[in-house]
Write a structure and sequence with these properties.
406 residues; alpha/beta; Aspartate Aminotransferase, domain 1; Aspartate Aminotransferase, domain 2; 7-stranded mixed sheet; 4-stranded mixed sheet; 15 helices; globular; pyridoxal phosphate; Acetylornithine aminotransferase; N2-acetyl-L-ornithine:2-oxoglutarate 5-aminotransferase activity; aminotransferase
């Protein structure tokens, strides 16, 4: 008989963990749907979705079933072999998108790492080495590896790690003239988030994405869409590029893709995929049977008119309530986003105080996010009930009333 496990508490984080995070004072231990309970039994409503990850909330029966069934069969093989869940999920992604080929990874950063490496490999192969420059957007975020953090347009994440990767240029988001001035025959790729997530929940303008596509075509460069945060139903479309009608050459996906199980994917065309021949790139865990079984089950649920139309309807419910709070308390200057990736911009007197709003919301039993110091971000379950939306918004209003009237 095994000895009972010793209890853990929040202080253990400070004692045992690397201090690169600053987690909340409470520890969630159980979740069901869009409700979470902490160690003390306190219930919270989850508007954070694990940072746009828990696409179907906590403990969704379809995902639980897929995971437990696969867990009883096969956990891991490595890519010396293929497996049925990976093949099934790859087929689903190809049949549902522009893509013809899929590469599986463990995370959004790894999916982007693969995308950027493929773009440079393609540029090398077609130019003999002269086409390697990548153009990304200011305030973009693409992951935490040295390559992805260098492509990301937020210096606070990339400084202090020695020499940066060369050949990366940043231009202002939604500034087509700046992109036109930067692109050249040396450009192998332009990288854009259709909705900037960490940069403040800022959707791209239609003309900017369309113009980027035309510039890439004119200069022989690839267009990469980072849909790690905006993808898998989050925008009200399976992928946000479908809303814009602008098709990329490479698309990256993660976060919601596994509904909480770590998985990422890079989607591309057959022509480009051929530049990743055997041995050029790889991942030990990429295409793991557990992750792909869960991801496949999630796609079956999310990629339906009922869920995607429901996301659009839920956006309107959030927007109406948040705009009402803006009028009543003066704390927000606007609401932006798409689907269930929503940003409420803090008004001038509240700029820089997003963390204060998060803390107050936690105290009222609500989990929300920030996107920088000036934006409150909402990324709940795509199937969150109207009752949970209304109760969560009521808790948010109590928090706002308390801090604005203090």
């Amino acid at each position: 008989m095994s000895a009972p496990q010793s209890p853990v508490q929040r202080a253990d984080f400070d004692q045992f963990m690397v201090p690169n995070y600053a987690p909340a004072a409470f520890i969630p231990v159980r979740g069901e749907g869009s409700r979470v309970w902490d160690q003390g039994g306190r219930e919270l409503i989850d508007f954070s979705g694990g940072i746009a990850v828990n696409a179907l909330g906590h403990g969704h029966p379809a995902l639980m079933k897929a995971l437990t069934e696969q867990a009883s069969k096969l956990w891991h093989l490595s890519n010396v072999y293929t497996n049925e869940p990976a093949l099934r999920m790859a087929r689903q992604l190809v049949e549902s998108t522009f893509a013809e080929r899929v590469f599986f990874a463990n995370s959004g950063a790894e999916a982007n790492e693969a995308a950027f490496k493929l773009a440079r490999r393609y540029g090398h192969d077609v130019s003999g080495g002269s086409r390697y420059e990548i153009i990304a957007m200011i305030n973009s975020f693409h992951g935490r590896t040295l390559f992805t953090v260098s492509v990301g347009g937020q210096p606070k994440y990339s400084e202090g790690f020695g020499p940066k990767i060369e050949g990366i240029t940043h231009v202002p988001f939604n500034d087509l003239d700046a992109l036109k001035a930067a692109i050249s025959e040396k450009t192998c790729a332009v990288v854009i988030e259709p909705i900037q997530g960490e940069g403040g929940v800022l959707p791209a303008e239609q003309g900017f994405l369309q113009g980027a596509r035309e510039l890439c075509d004119a200069h022989g460069a690839l267009l990469i869409f980072d849909e790690v945060q905006s993808g898998v139903g989050r925008s009200g479309y399976l992928y946000a590029y479908m809303h814009y009608g602008v098709v990329p050459d490479i698309l990256t996906s993660a976060k919601s893709l596994g509904g909480g199980f770590p998985i990422g994917a890079m989607l591309t065309t057959e022509k480009l995929a051929s530049h990743f021949s055997v041995g050029v790139h790889g991942s030990t865990y990429g295409g793991n049977p557990l992750g792909c079984a869960v991801g496949s089950a999630l796609l079956e649920v999310v990629n339906t008119p009922e869920v995607l139309d429901g996301v659009k309807a839920r956006y309107e419910r959030f927007r109406t309530a948040l705009e009402s709070m803006a009028d009543k308390y003066g704390i927000f200057s606007g609401v932006r986003g798409m689907g269930l990736l929503i940003g409420a911009l803090l008004s001038e007197p509240w700029k820089g105080k997003a963390k204060d709003v998060l803390t107050a919301a936690n105290e009222e039993g609500l989990m929300v996010l920030q996107a920088g110091p000036d934006v409150i971000r909402f990324a709940p379950s795509l199937v969150i009930s109207e009752a949970d939306i209304d109760e969560g918004l009521a808790r948010l209003e109590r928090a706002i009333a308390r801090i604005t009237q203090a």
